């Protein structure tokens, strides 16, 4: 049994970053880019722009379309911008943590934003505070700014590269000075970051759907360990680390990214569909219809239906006006939340043997509620099929997959879990199946197998990893 004393995870963020260089109305275009990545974070958003003379910023808590309007966008002058959407899942909500941060310094101001999580942030913060740093926020992003300014290097690019060497964990950073945009990825490439072109300018984005949104053309992904510098001379690429590897977060494909985005050359919808196909091969079952949990599991459900030959049906609909349910503070609220969000279609499921496809099980709240609702609506059998392996360990790299004792698969075997959610059968996609579905790309799958690609630094996290608690 897991000990709850190990639940005090640090701040975890699931965010999206967007940057633009040398394109008129950079703030307005950033608005559209960020809006298309709203699913990556709804807690807060901001944009910092530059007109080559000054930096301008606006940020607030809330969604992109409520935070920005014509009046405040028109004050964000210039042809260069960085922007951020933020999803704080623990601790550090509030305006002080909304990004981009805009740092004022005698050697030059800069804006900074980040997607990911720095796992050695407490150690670095302690070190920097002992050297005199005073932090304005509880976000680990600010640590990077202090490292840059406290380092020995006088050249800004060298200072960035030196500072990045101190950071362990997952990051996609965008940094804007008055004349240069920098974009960088951690040496394991855990979080996505792509470059595109628009007219004579450049666009950088967590997801390619934002490039499509503003009519930019995808050029390439930024590589693990790469620092891209964009200025008047064009694009300059260099690496801050030599020991790089490709460990893209598997959850980006499974749940997090938009189906119309491509990650390392693989379309997310196609990847999910392929997961559904593999699942049908690994766990066939006799049934009348295949139903996907909207929206993130629809692609996998199509794949399962195609592979099995069992018809896909719209047996469940999503209330488009409901908010999120995953991170509600209490279990009772989460359960109500599922009902507000998802409803079975009685005339479709009644009298049918249903294969219900979901992309993942975290706490088990969604599955248990959906199985119960389907049965209330007259489904004869409900066979749950999950298009990813069981989540048995937390993520320390910026995706909220919950804590050890909340993760139902960390605490329960398959049969017990099947009984708990009330399904007639339950099966998860195997790790090998997931690898194959994602074209054997270099992946992080640590929440499925505890094979974390970095040190975790915190004693609590290490203890969790080794299952000592
Ligand atoms: P649960 O009800 O706790 O088992 O959560 C499972 C549901 O949450 C699934 O339907 C997933 O689509 C969704 N989900 C999985 N991972 C996340 C995440 N990191 N943030 C929000 N929702 C998630
Ligand atoms: Fe993604 Fe899981 Fe790795 Fe976190 S632990 S980066 S959620 S695959």
Automatic annotation (TrEMBL):
Coiled coil: none annotated. Mg(2+) binds at residues 296, 358-359. Its cofactor is Mg(2+); [4Fe-4S] cluster. It catalyses: 5-phospho-beta-D-ribosylamine + L-glutamate + diphosphate = 5-phospho-alpha-D-ribose 1-diphosphate + L-glutamine + H2O. The active site is at residue 15. Pathway: Purine metabolism; IMP biosynthesis via de novo pathway; N(1)-(5-phospho-D-ribosyl)glycinamide from 5-phospho-alpha-D-ribose 1-diphosphate: step 1/2. Its EC number is 2.4.2.14. One of its GO terms (biological process) is 'de novo' IMP biosynthetic process. Binds 1 Mg(2+) ion per subunit. In the C-terminal section; belongs to the purine/pyrimidine phosphoribosyltransferase family. PANTHER family: AMIDOPHOSPHORIBOSYLTRANSFERASE. This is Amidophosphoribosyltransferase. It comes from Erysipelothrix larvae.
């Amino acid at each position: 049994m897991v000990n709850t004393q190990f639940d005090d995870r640090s701040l975890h963020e699931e965010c999206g970053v967007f940057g633009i260089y040398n394109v008129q109305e950079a703030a307005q275009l950033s608005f559209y880019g960020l809006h298309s990545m709203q699913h990556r974070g709804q807690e807060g958003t901001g944009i910092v722009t530059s007109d080559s003379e000054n930096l301008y910023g606006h940020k607030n808590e809330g969604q992109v379309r409520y935070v920005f309007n014509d009046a405040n966008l028109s004050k964000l002058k210039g042809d260069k911008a960085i922007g951020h959407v933020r999803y704080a899942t623990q601790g550090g909500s509030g305006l002080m943590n909304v990004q981009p941060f805009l740092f004022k310094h005698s050697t030059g101001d800069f804006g900074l934003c980040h997607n990911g999580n720095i796992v050695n942030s407490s150690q670095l913060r302690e070190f920097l505070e002992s050297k005199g740093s005073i932090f304005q926020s509880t976000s680990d992003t600010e640590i990077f700014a202090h490292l840059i300014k406290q380092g020995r290097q006088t050249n800004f690019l060298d200072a960035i590269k030196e500072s990045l060497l101190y950071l362990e964990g997952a990051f996609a950073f965008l940094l804007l000075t008055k004349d240069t945009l920098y974009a960088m990825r951690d040496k394991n490439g855990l979080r996505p970051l792509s470059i595109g072109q628009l007219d004579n300018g450049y666009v950088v984005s967590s997801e390619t759907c934002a490039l499509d949104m503003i009519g930019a053309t995808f050029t390439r992904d930024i590589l693990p360990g790469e620092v891209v510098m964009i200025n008047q001379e064009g694009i300059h690429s260099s690496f801050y680390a030599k020991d790089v590897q490709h460990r893209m977060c598997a959850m980006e494909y499974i749940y997090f990214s938009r189906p119309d985005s491509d990650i390392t050359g693989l379309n997310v919808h196609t990847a999910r569909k392929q997961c559904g196909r593999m699942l049908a091969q690994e766990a066939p079952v006799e049934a009348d219809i295949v139903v996907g949990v909207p929206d993130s599991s629809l692609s996998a459900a199509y794949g399962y239906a195609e592979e099995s030959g069992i018809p896909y049906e719209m047996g469940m609909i999503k209330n488009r006006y409901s908010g999120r349910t995953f991170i509600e503070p209490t279990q009772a609220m989460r359960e109500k939340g599922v009902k507000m969000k998802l409803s079975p279609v009685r005339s479709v499921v009644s009298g049918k043997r249903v294969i219900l496809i979901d992309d993942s099980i975290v706490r088990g709240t969604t599955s248990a509620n959906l199985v119960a609702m389907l049965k209330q609506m007259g489904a004869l059998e409900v066979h749950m099929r999950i298009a990813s392996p069981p989540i048995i360990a937390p993520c320390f790299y910026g995706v909220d997959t919950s804590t050890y004792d909340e993760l139902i698969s960390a605490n329960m075997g398959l049969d017990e879990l099947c009984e708990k959610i009330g399904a007639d059968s339950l099966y998860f996609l195997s790790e090998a199946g997931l690898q194959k579905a994602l074209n054997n790309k270099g992946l992080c799958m640590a929440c499925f197998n505890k094979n974390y690609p970095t040190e975790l630094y915190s004693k609590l996290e290490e203890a969790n990893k080794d299952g000592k608690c």
